[in-house]
Amino acid sequence: MEISWFKYPFIRILIPFVAGVFIGFSTDNLSFSKNTILLLLIILTFLLTILIAASQLIKNYRYRWVFFMLFNVFFFTLSFTLVVIRDYKLSYNALDNVNADPEYYVARLFECPTIKDKSVKVNLELLGVADSVNYLIEKNTKVISYFEKNESSLSLKYGDCIVFFTNPKEIEKPPNPEQFDYKDYMYKKGVNYQVYLKSDDWFNLEYNKSNVIFEFSYKIRDYLLETMQRLGVQGEEYAVASAILLGYDDSLPLDLRQKYVAAGAMHILCVSGLHVGVVFMVFSYILVFLNDRKRIQSVIKQLLLLLLVWFYALLAGLAPSILRSTIMISFVIIGNIINRKGVLLNSLAASAFILLCFNPSNLFDVGFLLSYVAVIGIVVLQKPISRMFYSKYKIVNKIWEITSVTIAAQIATTPFSIYYFHQFPIYFWLSNLFMTPISSIVIIGGMIMLLVSFVPYLNIFVAWFVSKMIFVMNYGVSWIETLPYSIIKGIYIDSVQFVILLITLLLILLMVELKRKRNIIPIMIMTFLFLLINVKNSMNNNKQRGIMIYSLNNMTAVDFINGREHLLLVDSAFLENKSAFSYNIENFLIKNGLFYNGKTRLIQDDFDEVFVKKRKSVVTFDEKLLALCENDDFFEDSLSYRIPVDYMLVYGKNNKKLSQLLKVYDIGNLIIDSSVPYYISLKITEEANVLGIKCHSLRENGAIFIK
């Protein structure tokens, strides 16, 4: 059975459009001038004219390929142009283009502030830069800012305009291999710079410049959040209720978030299709009195439902996940109004096309991708999976139906989960079995709680009921997390394997949707290629051998790698920081097959392992000597014989002088750790340059791998 493209026009559009977005972002290191933009727009207009003419003139089916080719080229060029225009704005308005030394900056808060433990985080839109002659250079640059936490910063709200005096710095690339690329992540969101503002570095202009729609959305959301607290919803129950009902997850504790991830139920905390579907069904039931044969009443009901789901999307902050679901259900509602039923996959493609037109970088948003592939998996795979089992008991069939939805979504999202997060939740089917109905009750109960918030006693009772339901949810995910092997971590696939998995998934979906059994052979070929690459990567990991010295802010970590084994040498500050390992080091270990085969030692300890030994301040590894220097207190006198070392790692906050170290060691290569204060690091670097010693600063140049 072949694909009937007439049923899926937006899928046909989306294929070249996505290709254009991908190619556009692949060339983000190129600079585009105004003339380039103008030329692309002229080409785009010309292509559109030719496309319209071709659709009218080409009647012979034999030459329809000409129209299809022009069609694909047009949408490819359209998406490429959208990306180029966006990138052009980022580069043309970059702060590096300001010739004079800026004296102050004028900016506005273009989103609500987020309260952190020690700071207030908010994205700023730069309105202007004033130089020494007070000439205002208008900008369109976005800056992520961290305000010192005090009364003034806590009073900031969306749309406030401020003046600050600290020069923003470009967001730096990650210093360690395989570390999360925060610079690239923020760049795709249109943010290139960051700044930390102390209390004396800025002041509020007492002027608000906000978007009316977003201002209304944030005010209503804040009011509803305050209402929940006033009704007695507190602690973790409040954090989960805020996330489920209003898409506000800033107050969600990290450990609780991790429990939902481990249980495979994180999607429940993200306002998406489930939530929009529940809202749609609830209000559809409330408006049942409009169910009548008279067409006018049916149209009124559908228009009200359309208005209500968009109002809910507005309350949830118009996030991509909620927009995808809202746009898709809007197509369904509009189809009901005009008496035309659409194809769900086509509606899904239409919503993706619209969102990518507004923001092409959505293509690289993991949440955006996961939400789409999950729905595609459910639409295509749920029914075939559900038919695999049948019971004469209705309750058993219902349980299996819920489970089949979860399995279908998990099959579709697994390549993305492994590639981006390197983990797989084993008990996803169990958590969703009870979480889906309970979360639906919480959503409905939460809506009722907010609607009756002004009714005495009833509002308290409903709030108490919702809190208890959320408590059950939290207890459930906590219990699932404690089960043996609740989540498999440390799974790694490279980009080629990821593409192979996506192709395999596409072949499976086409085989199921079109009943195309001949897809089994290419699926087997893809599986063989995947395993072949896996064997190759495993063989490379067995041969690896070297020393990785990580660049960690105010911490020290040295990794000795021998095949699939490694020993991590760290200071006490690293052990006390729970997130230091997962954020800076974990992905590197996963990629190199070292995640489960390692030991950790304190840098002060002596040890004697099979492949690495340490005595006092000297480490022996693979016939190389690495000296570790924290201070120079014991370097009082010169020795008659200096100890030759291949590498010297200077670490810690104590004062050090290279001249003192050279009294004891004959240093081949000098490495300055990020735990060394900046001013001391500069002095040592200058001394090394004068003496002709090779020097590598981890703070300036990032981590170093010694093969």
Chain-wise SSE layout:
Elements lengths: L8 H18 L7 H24 L6 H29 L11 E6 L4 E2 L3 E12 L5 E3 L3 E7 L2 H4 L5 E5 L4 E2 L11 H6 L3 E7 L4 E7 L3 H19 L4 H12 L7 H9 L10 H14 L8 H21 L4 H18 L6 H15 L7 H21 L7 H28 L1 E3 L2 H24 L6 H25 L4 E3 L5 H20 L5 H24 L1 E5 L7 E6 L2 E6 L1 H5 L1 H7 L1 H6 L6 E5 L4 E2 L3 E4 L2 E4 L2 E6 L13 E8 L7 H4 L3 E8 L5 H14 L2 E4 H4 L2 E3 L1
Parallel strand pairs: 5-8, 14-15, 19-20, 20-21, 21-22
Antiparallel strand pairs: 1-3, 1-6, 2-3, 3-4, 3-5, 6-9, 7-8, 10-11, 12-13, 12-23, 13-14, 16-17, 17-18, 18-19
Q: Overview of this structure, please?
A:
This protein is of the alpha+beta class. The protein is built from 24 helices and 23 strands. The strands form 4 sheets. Strands 1, 2, 3, 4, 5, 6, 7, 8 and 9 form a 9-stranded mixed beta sheet that branches. Strands 16-17-18-19-20-21-22 form a 7-stranded mixed beta sheet. It has a 5-stranded mixed beta sheet with strand order 15-14-13-12-23.
Could you tell me the mean pLDDT? 83
Oligomer: single chain
The best one-word shape is globular
What is the helix tally? Answer: 24
- What's the β-strand tally? 23
Task: Compute the number of structural domains.
Answer: 5
The span between the termini is 55 Å
Helix content percent band: 40-55%
Q: Please indicate the percent range of residues in DSSP E strands (runs of 2 or more).
A: 15-25%
Largest sheet: 9 strands, mixed
Return Rg in Å. 29 Å
Indicate the low-confidence ranges by residue numbers. Answer: none
